[in-house]
Amino acid sequence: MEHSPAGGSRSCPAGGGRGASTFPETGGQYSHAAAWLGHAFARLGEGDEAARIFSFLNPASHASTRTEANHYRVEPYAVAADIASVDPHTGRGGWTWYTGAAAWTWRLGVEAILGLKMRCGQLAIDPALPKGWGGFKAEIRTSGGTLNIAVKDPGRIGHGRVEIKVDGKAHSGPVALPGDGKMHKVEVRLRPISARRPKAAARI
Questions:
Q1: Which range is most confident: 31-35, 83-87, 104-108?
Q2: Does the pLDDT at position 139 exceed 50?
């Protein structure tokens, strides 16, 4: 039987298998909870912490070598619903192809870290990036056209006030999805916020 720091527990058969009788379902077990923590860090502007959690959930991060892949034991291309953190199974994945875990991990990467969120048919942009990135590029294609997005973070601040230009013109608020069949250029620049909050990691 494994006991988690949060007080939950689950039994671990010798073979490390997963089944309804061996792994009781608790909210603390699943990677949903880790993804939610990543979302919380992103909302606090702590992109480095959010990205660290995303990397932990990313199956490719656990299978860069054959040794790592053999230890992880599950597909390196499908998000696992849980990753063991207690010996003797530390780092071993379990129950892949779980849509809830995959969806929340996708939202952590795209909506929370990249800050690309659909709101009532429009694109809201509010990134929380790792400071080392310096920006990113993305392309959103719809039946009505394409948004070519370039986010620049020259000050390496990760999160801040967002300045947007659409096709070279200043824009405020969410960006409407195109309907003219054309490609539109969206330029985003992160600027410092005058009053910075204390680091989340120091408070949690």
A1: 104-108
A2: yes
Domains in the chain, CATH or no CATH each: 16-111 (no CATH), 115-193 (2.60.420.10)
Nearest to 178 by CA among 143, 149, 151: 143
Strands 80-83 and 9-10: unpaired
pTM over 0.85: no
Burial class (CB in 10 A: 0-12, 13-18, 19+), 177: middle
For all residues of the chain together, what is the average pLDDT?
85
Q: Considering only CA atoms, which of 92, 89, 57 is closest in space to residue 73?
A: 92
Angle at 11 between CA 8 and CA 12, to 5 degrees: 125
